[in-house]
Write a structure and sequence with these properties.
With about 190 residues, this protein is mainly alpha-helical. The protein has one domain (about 5-155). The protein has helices at about 10-40, 65-90, 115-120, 120-150, 150-155, and strands spanning about 95-100, 105-110.
């Protein structure tokens, strides 16, 4: 994994921040899961829940399943890439990496050399272990940025925002033909 050996990027800072963020997220997720368990056992209505588990066919339409599984695969690959880059940066050999499908669940894996991992300091080991969560956090922040700022990011591709509805096609003789305010897209 040559990406982790490039010295052009401040990996020590990158993965150090990843450890801090991962530990904060771990504490937050413990609190959220405890609240979810309590609300579930107290049989609170679904609209009062802090988290809602995604159950395909129940609260996720079945026709969205390919997108959901694709997103899971992308997140898994990005997560394991984080571990692999951190391991390479800490001089831990990556023995194998790949993707798999277990039933319908897609996933990814990275096999690190156990002897190399045992020889590094706990701080270096922690950077490798937290790298996956950190990379998923960065991926989620990037997705949120794409969600809230598509006009700014996609403007070079011709995307425009707040320009109203655009009619791209009208049937011949439609009652809408010639209506004021309707313009044909060019």
């Amino acid at each position: 994994m040559h990406t982790g050996r490039l010295r052009l990027f401040p990996y020590r800072i990158w993965f150090g921040v990843g450890v801090l963020i991962s530990l904060a997220l771990m504490a937050t997720s413990c609190v959220l899961l405890t609240v979810l368990a309590y609300n579930t056992l107290a049989q609170r209505p679904a609209n009062e829940q802090v988290l809602t588990p995604v159950v395909p066919g129940v609260n996720l339409p079945s026709n969205h399943l390919p997108y959901y599984l694709g997103a899971l695969l992308l997140c898994g690959i990005f997560h394991e890439f984080g571990h692999a880059v951190a391991a390479a940066r800490e001089d831990i050999r990556v023995q194998a990496a790949g993707i798999f499908v277990l039933g319908v669940y897609p996933g990814a894996f990275v096999d690190l050399n156990s002897a190399d991992l045992a020889l590094v300091s706990p701080a270096r080991r922690l950077r490798v272990f937290c790298a996956g969560v950190w990379h998923n956090t960065v991926l989620a922040l990037g997705a949120i940025l794409l969600l809230i700022r598509p006009a700014w990011l996609l403007a070079p591709l011709g995307y425009s925002n707040a320009s109203g509805a655009v009619v791209t096609w009208l049937a011949a003789g439609s009652v809408l033909s010639g209506q004021q305010g309707l313009y044909r897209a060019t």
